[in-house]
Design a protein that fits this description.
Number of strands: 26
GO molecular function, one term: RNA binding
Keywords: Isopeptide bond, Phosphoprotein, Repeat, Ribonucleoprotein, RNA-binding, Ubl conjugation
Helix content: 10-25%
Structural class: alpha+beta
Number of helices: 9
Protein name: RRM domain-containing protein
InterPro entries: HnRNP-L/PTB, HNRNPL_RRM, Nucleotide-bd_a/b_plait_sf, RBD_domain_sf, RRM_dom
Oligomer: single chain
Shape: globular
Length: about 475
C-alpha cells in the first residue's frame, strides 16, 4: 500500500495529506457549503475556515478521500457555493483543534464563537437572532478577549458575516458542557430562566441580522434600515434571490444606545499621552483605525490628556477595546468614555512640539469609515507587531522605508514583504514586522498618512498603515 501511494503521488510537489487546502472561495461561504460539496469524496473530520483569505482547510478521514478530492479538482471544475474552488494537499497532516472538545459526537452542546472584525456591537440579542433559527438557543454568555467571543447553541454559520463585511463568525466546540448565567442582560442571557434580573428589552421591531447591512445609519437610535438576509442554509442557498427569502427574523432592539456598559457618548478621553511626542495628528493616526475622527483637543487643565470626538459611540467602544492600556512612547494609555458629548474648541494653546492643542478632522480624506462600503474594508485588529502598508509608490524600496523610520526617530522593521501587484498598478502594498507590538504602534502613530513625494510626481502618495491579521512574516 505504501508503494502504491508513492507511485500515485510522486507527481505532486507537496506530500499527500488527509488535509486539503481549498482556495478561491466566495466571501459568503460557510462550513456547511464545504461539507455539502466535498463529502462525496469521503468522510470529513474537520473544517477550518479562513474567511478573510477566502480559503479553508478540510481534513478527510483518510488519504484516499483527500486524493479523490484533489484529483477531481485537477480534471474538472468543482463548485462550492456556486463558485469554482481549487484544491491542493496541505503541508499539515492534521488540522490543529483549538480545544480538546472538538468532537461533534461528544454530546457537548456548547459552542465557542469568535467574532472577528467586530466593527459593530454584538449583544445577546444579535447572537440569539443569528443562531436560534438553526437550533433552539438555551443560554448565551459574551466575554471579551481579542474581539468578542460567545459560547452557545456550527456548520451553518461558521465563516459567515453577521453584518456585511464584518463581524465574521468562527465557531468551535467549547470546553465547558454547560453555561452558567447569573443575570439576563446585553452580555449574558438564560432563555430558560426569564425571571433572572433583566433589563427591559422593548417591544422590538422587524429587522434582519446575519449578512445584512451594518446596524447603524448614524441616526439617533443607532439602528437604521437593513438589506435582506441571505437565505438560511439549504441545499441551494446561494442560488436564491432576495425576494425568495421566506421571512424576516424579529430582533428586539435595546431601548438605550449604551453598549457593553459604556456611556452613550461619541467622545473618548485619552490620558497618559507623552508630553512631547504626542499631538492631535498622531492621536488621529492611531485612533482612525477604529472609527472616524471628528475633533481632537488636548486639555490645558489636565496635562497629557486629550478628548477625541469620534463618529459614534461604537467607534469609541472599539477604541477602548483595542487601545486602552497599550504603551505608546513608554507611556501607558488610558482610554475611557468622556462625560462630554462633543469637543468644543475652547482654550486652544500650543503644545510642546509647537503644534495646536486642537484640530478638526471632520473634512479630512484620511478618515476610513465615511461610507458603509469603505467601513467594510477595514479589518478591526488589536495592535500587533506586524503592520500592513499600502498606497506606496512602486519605486519606493525597503531601504527607503527603513530610512524613513530612522529620519522620524522610530524603530525600524526587522522583516519586509511586498505583495504581488498587477503590472499596471500605480501603488504597492505589503507587511512590516517589528521586534515588538510597542514598536509597531509607535511607527504607525508617527508615519501613518505620511506624504511620500517622488521625483516628477504631481501629487504625493499618502502612506496608509494599519495593524495586520498576521502575527509574523
Amino acid at each position: 500500500m505504501q508503494i502504491f501511494y508513492m507511485n500515485r503521488y510522486d507527481a505532486h510537489r507537496i506530500a499527500p495529506s488527509p488535509v486539503v487546502h481549498v482556495r478561491g472561495l466566495c466571501e459568503s461561504v460557510v462550513e456547511a457549503d464545504l461539507v455539502e460539496a466535498l463529502e462525496k469524496f469521503g468522510n470529513i473530520c474537520y473544517v477550518m475556515m479562513m474567511p478573510f483569505k477566502r480559503q479553508a482547510l478540510v481534513e478527510f478521514e483518510d488519504l484516499d478521500s483527500a486524493y479523490r478530492c484533489v484529483l477531481c479538482g485537477t480534471k474538472e471544475a468543482v463548485y462550492i457555493a456556486g463558485q469554482q474552488a481549487f484544491f491542493n494537499y496541505s503541508t499539515s497532516k492534521r488540522i490543529t483543534r483549538p480545544t480538546n472538545a472538538d468532537d461533534p459526537n461528544s454530546g457537548n452542546k456548547v459552542l465557542l464563537l469568535s467574532i472577528q472584525n467586530p466593527l459593530y456591537p454584538i449583544t445577546t440579542d444579535v447572537l440569539y437572532t443569528v443562531c436560534n433559527p438553526i437550533g433552539n438557543v438555551l443560554r448565551i454568555v459574551i466575554f471579551k478577549r481579542n474581539g468578542i467571543q460567545a459560547m452557545k447553541a456550527k456548520a451553518a454559520l461558521n465563516g459567515a458575516d453577521i453584518y456585511a463585511g464584518c463581524c465574521t463568525l468562527k465557531i468551535e466546540y467549547a470546553r465547558p458542557s454547560r453555561l452558567n448565567v447569573i443575570r439576563n442582560d446585553n452580555d449574558s442571557w438564560d432563555y430558560t430562566k426569564p425571571f433572572l434580573v433583566r433589563r427591559e428589552r422593548g417591544k422590538g421591531r422587524q429587522r434582519q441580522a446575519i449578512l445584512g447591512e451594518h446596524p447603524s445609519s448614524y441616526i439617533d437610535n443607532g439602528y437604521g434600515s437593513h438589506c435582506p438576509l441571505l437565505p438560511l442554509p439549504s441545499n441551494n442557498r446561494f442560488k436564491r434571490s432576495s425576494h425568495e427569502i421566506p421571512e424576516v427574523v424579529s430582533y428586539p432592539l435595546p431601548q438605550t444606545s449604551s453598549y457593553m456598559g459604556h456611556a452613550s457618548s461619541s467622545v473618548a478621553m485619552v490620558s497618559g499621552l507623552h508630553p512631547t511626542k504626542m499631538n492631535c495628528i498622531r492621536i488621529f493616526n492611531l485612533f482612525c483605525l477604529y472609527g472616524n475622527i471628528e475633533k481632537v483637543k488636548f486639555m490645558k487643565s489636565v496635562p497629557g490628556t486629550a478628548l477625541v470626538e469620534m463618529g459614534d459611540e461604537y467607534a469609541v467602544d472599539r477604541a477602548i477595546t483595542h487601545l486602552n492600556s497599550i504603551k505608546v512612547f513608554s507611556k501607558r494609555l488610558n482610554v475611557c468614555v468622556s462625560k462630554q458629548h462633543a469637543v468644543i474648541p475652547s482654550q486652544v494653546f500650543e503644545l510642546e512640539d509647537g503644534s495646536s492643542s486642537y484640530k478638526d478632522f471632520a473634512m479630512t480624506r484620511n478618515n476610513r469609515f465615511t461610507s458603509a462600503g469603505q467601513a467594510s474594508k477595514n479589518i478591526i485588529q488589536p495592535p500587533s507587531c506586524v503592520l500592513h502598508f499600502y498606497n506606496v509608490p512602486p519605486c519606493v524600496t525597503e531601504d527607503e522605508l527603513l530610512q524613513l523610520c530612522k529620519e522620524h526617530d522610530v524603530p525600524g522593521f526587522i522583516k519586509f514583504k511586498v505583495f504581488d501587484a498587477k503590472p499596471s498598478s500605480k501603488t504597492i502594498s505589503g507587511l512590516l514586522e517589528f521586534d515588538s507590538k510597542t514598536n509597531a504602534v509607535e511607527v504607525l502613530t508617527v508615519l501613518n498618512h505620511y506624504q511620500i513625494r517622488i521625483p516628477n510626481g504631481s501629487n504625493p502618495y499618502t502612506l496608509k498603515l494599519c495593524f495586520s491579521t498576521s502575527s509574523h512574516l
